[in-house]
Amino acid sequence: MLNFISLTNSLCIFSCFLLNRFIEGLIPMDKCPLPHEYPLHPGNHVDNSLDLWSRTDVQTCTYWGAPIIWDGMFDPEYYDDFYRKQNITVALTVFAVGRYLDLYLEKFLTSAEQHFMFGQRVIYYVFTDSPEKVPKIKMAAFRTLLTFRVEKYSRWQDVSMLRMKMISDIIDSHVRHHAQYIFCLDVDQTFVGRFGTEALGDMVALLHSFYYRRPKFFYTYDQNPKSTAYIKTGDMYYHAAVFGGTWQRVKNLTQICYDGIMQDKMNHVEALWHDESHLNKYFLLYKPTKLLSPEYCWAEYIGYRSDIHVHRLVWAEKNYKFVRQ
């Protein structure tokens, strides 16, 4: 009898979850407030080629003039050709500590070789506690992988938060000398479609797939006034699984977030969603110049959404209890 009741309760919870996700998908998004044919940048900037009005079903720009990248807004060949002529290099940082390395890193890297900045110069920076276990991946020309040993902390939250300092340090010691742009991604994701040069910008943030259609009062900002990550009300809710930009702007982001984290530690405070809470506070104060739609990091169990035409990066199946031991 107890097993039947437990099963019934589980089915009810799952049904409510699906219903809530369906209802969220019906909530209309804000619209781009810019006038038609309004240039995002002066001169012949590549982002001026974006068609902000090709997607009437979603928000394609912010009130501060940053584009939100959706399928159908850009010409991939135009972007790739533009940046190929610039002879750019893109750095990609990823942390694979403990069981995250065993479960996710190989698929992350092999899928990145198929879809991340395809045809461009890329340097992968893999931070791990076991460099000897990093898989050997066949890479295209002008794409390399470097490994860096990091400490395995007893709490996964510490790894999550201290990555801000490690990224800041590697920008100083290496990235600034070898790459113009840098992206920082979580390892428990898989590339399944183009994640290309259209994503490049000075300061790039990602709309969280859970929140992009929710009313703002549902955003889970840190509500503790004692934390440096405290936000009463904000513009968007950003996902820390993907952020990037020029190395100069990402250096500033990671340093300020790390300083906030350390100040919280001194005050015996820990932000609600750790580095993600600090990231949201940073983007509230220093607006991103480009936003990526949830296509660029989608959770497939959300289900069908008519506005999600393609999946570019998807969350891997999670077993937090296992991988965070």
UniProtKB/TrEMBL annotation:
Transmembrane segments: none
Cofactor(s) needed for function: Mn(2+)
Amino acids binding UDP-N-acetyl-alpha-D-galactosamine: 95-97, 100, 186-188
GO terms of biological process kind: carbohydrate metabolic process
Subcellular locations according to the entry: Membrane
GO cellular component, one term: membrane
Record-listed an alpha-L-fucosyl-(1->2)-beta-D-galactosyl derivative binding positions: 208, 220, 276
Chain residues that bind Mn(2+): 186, 188
Alphabetized Pfam families for the sequence: Glyco_transf_6
Protein family membership: Belongs to the glycosyltransferase 6 family.
PANTHER family reported for this sequence: ALPHA-1,3-GALACTOSYLTRANSFERASE 2, GLYCOSYLTRANSFERASE-RELATED
Name under which the protein is recorded: A3LT2 galactosyltransferase
